[in-house]
Amino acid sequence: MSRMPAKLDELDLAILTAMHEYQKAGILELSRRTRVARATVQSRIGRMEESGVIASYDPQIDVTAAGFDVQAFVTLEIAQGALDAVAAELDAIPGVLEAYATTGSGDVLCRIGADSHAGLQAVLLSIDRTSSVVRSHSVIVLSTVVAHRTLPLLRTLTPTGTTKAPAYRDNSER
Question: In this predicted model, what pLDDT tens digit does every residue of 109-121 receive, in sequence order?
Answer without folding.
Answer: 999 999 999 999 9
